[in-house]
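INFO  loader      accepted 1 record
INFO  loader      residues=313
INFO  predictor   begin
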Amino acid sequence: MNETNSYARQRSGFGIWLDQHLYSFVSSLGRLVRKPWATLLTIGVMAVAFVLPLGLWLALANVEHFAGNVSDSREIDLFLKPDIDVARAQVLVEQLRDRADVAKVQLRTPEQGLAEFRERSGLGASLDALEGNPLPSLLQISPRGDEAGLVAALEHLPEADLVQHDAVWRDRLRGWLGFGERLTWVLAALFGLGALLVVGNTVRLDIQARREEIGVLQLLGASDGFIRRPFIYLGAWYGLVAGALAIALLAAAAAALAPPLAQLAQSYGSPFALAGLAPLQAGAVLVGAMIIGWVGAWLVTGHFLRQTRPTQT
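INFO  predictor   done
INFO  writer      dumping tokens
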């Protein structure tokens, strides 16, 4: 019988705790609805603060996708001397394939190069006026491991006329992308702090408007957690709705930019399409925005509760 009473008391206590949280959850939403303009301004400022770093991060992600994973683009172009015929180029291909630092070698003959140039340039009539084929044989080499030693060896080949390797350009692009990623994190921290301050100021105004009510609750012995709870849920609501609005703004921007960007990519013969937030990423944005609102409200509410706590005599 005693165990039954103890279980009933525990269940009753949990039910009261759950009812208090549910009431705070619903009542805080009601405060947002009762002040639509003030709520819209706060949420709008927070949403813009979220959109800017998120938009930069999405832009960088799409640039990396459009570049085709620059880190793995390590191909070396070896242009042979004009007097090297195709048969000698084939022999050189077999020799290079036997090297341990070479993964793949492809030969592009002068005829293949001229045909490709004719197709892409649209200068067929002008090319027909040329006497002979001025293009050399080209070996496209995919290195295995460190390509610096391979490039040096290719430059010393007697058949080599020009070795083209985009390592410097690739490193520079990788550096710019790394800088952009770091800049995104810095902006995210700054704008996240700004959103936290916006929530804190909004909750502070709400606390000031209810200062007398808070004082009465403290005199009646209400705990800080009981008083703080509605304001914390209010901050969480601000963050959640602002995060949802930020995602909607990003989707609208992507919809506006996608058609001209797709047309531009098509002119370069690329099937590139602008990518937005994945569902998991959108969920992470909502959770992060809600946490920012929650933390901002918790900090400000705790400070003002200490200021308004009645003096013990």
